[in-house]
C-alpha cells in the first residue's frame, strides 16, 4: 500500500497500544507456567500474533474472551512441552525467534523455526556459538533453523552452568536464555562478555518473570545469577502502554502538533521511556550527542526530531540498528534526505543536521518504524510526502494510519 500525505499538523488524544515487548514476555511466562494465566490489554499486531502462534504450536492454550482478555493455559511448568516436533513460524519478529529458541529446547524432539522478510538473516551467531560449545544440535538451512534439546532421549542438553554471550549484538539472546534457566535443575549465571546494551529489556524480562514468581539477581552489571529449580506460577497481569510507539507521538509534538499522549506509565521498566527526557534535550538548541545503545527503537522518531531542531545531533553506539527489520542507520538517513533533510550515517552512528523538511518519496523498506517516522516527518514538510509500502506498520501498530487520520492527518491511498 502506497500513501500520499499532505502535510497537516495533528491534534487530539492518543493512547499508544500496549507494549509489544512486555506482551511477548507475559505470553511466554504464562505459557511456561503450570496453570491458567489472565492477561488484560494485549494489543494485536503481527509480532504478537507470531508469539501466540508459536506458543500454540508448542501446545499452550490461548483463549480470547469477548472483553479482550486473554486466558493462557500453560504448558506445565515448562518441564514437558508436548509435541515431538514443532514448526514455529516467527513471521518477522526477532523477539519471537530469539526468545523462543531456548524454549524450543524443552520440546521432546526437534523444534524448527522459520520466518519472513529479513528475519532469518538477522544475527543468530551468539546462540549458534553457544549451542555448538554445549553440544546442542543446531542446523540453519533454507531459511529454517532446527534445534534439538535432546529431551526425548533422556538427556537435558541445556545444563545449568555459566552462559557467556556478547552483550552488543542483541539483548534478545539474554532474554531467551533467561526464560529457560530457572527451569534447569541447578543454578546458572548469564554473563555478558562485553558491556551489556539494551539492559532495560532484560529488566522487562525479569519483571514478567517476577509476575510468575520467578527470580534472578544481578551479581554485577554484566552478570546475572539465576537460581535453578524454579517453576513459573500462573498470574494475572495488564500490559501497559508502549513507550517506543509513544516516541512517534512525542516527535509529532516536537514538530508543533498537539497530541495528548495518554496512558503511559512514567515508572515503567521500558527503557524507551527515555524519550520523555530526550525530547527536552533536543528542544534545546545547539549540537548534541545521544547514546542509543539502551533505546535503539527510538532512533527513527528521535532522528525526525533532530531534523527539525536547531543544531547537529549525533546518535552514537548505534551499530545494532543495522540489524533490525531494515538497516535502520541507512534507512533513517535515506528517509530524512528523501524529504530534503541532511543526515549522514557512519558505521555505528548517525549524524542529523537540523533544518527544514520539504517533502518527497520515502521507501519504508518493509520497516514499520521507518513508515511511522515518515508519517510524522510529513507533518512538518512544506510539500507532499509519498510513503511506499505503508502497510508494514502491521508489524507493531496495525491501526497507526487510522489513528493518524483521526488526529487530522491527511492521507490518501495511491
Ligand atoms: O527485548 C525486546 O523486546 C527488544 C529488544 C531490542 O532489541 P536488541 O536488544 O536486539 O537491540 C529492541 O530493538 C526490540 O525491538 C525489542
Ligand atoms: C526490532 C524490532 O522488533 P524485533 O527485533 O522483535 O523484530 C522492533 O520492533 O523495532
From TrEMBL:
Signal peptide: none annotated. It catalyses: 3-phosphoshikimate + phosphoenolpyruvate = 5-O-(1-carboxyvinyl)-3-phosphoshikimate + phosphate. Its EC number is 2.5.1.19. 3-phosphoshikimate binds at residues 20-21, 25, 170-172, 198, 297, 324. Phosphoenolpyruvate binds at residues 20, 94, 122, 172, 328, 369, 395. InterPro entries: Enolpyruvate_Tfrase_dom, Enolpyruvate_Tfrase_sf, EPSP_synthase, EPSP_synthase_CS, RNA3'P_cycl/enolpyr_Trfase_a/b. GO terms for molecular function: 3-phosphoshikimate 1-carboxyvinyltransferase activity. Residues 7-403 form the Enolpyruvate transferase domain. Belongs to the EPSP synthase family. Catalyzes the transfer of the enolpyruvyl moiety of phosphoenolpyruvate (PEP) to the 5-hydroxyl of shikimate-3-phosphate (S3P) to produce enolpyruvyl shikimate-3-phosphate and inorganic phosphate. Monomer. This is 3-phosphoshikimate 1-carboxyvinyltransferase. It comes from Dysosmobacter welbionis. The gene is aroA.
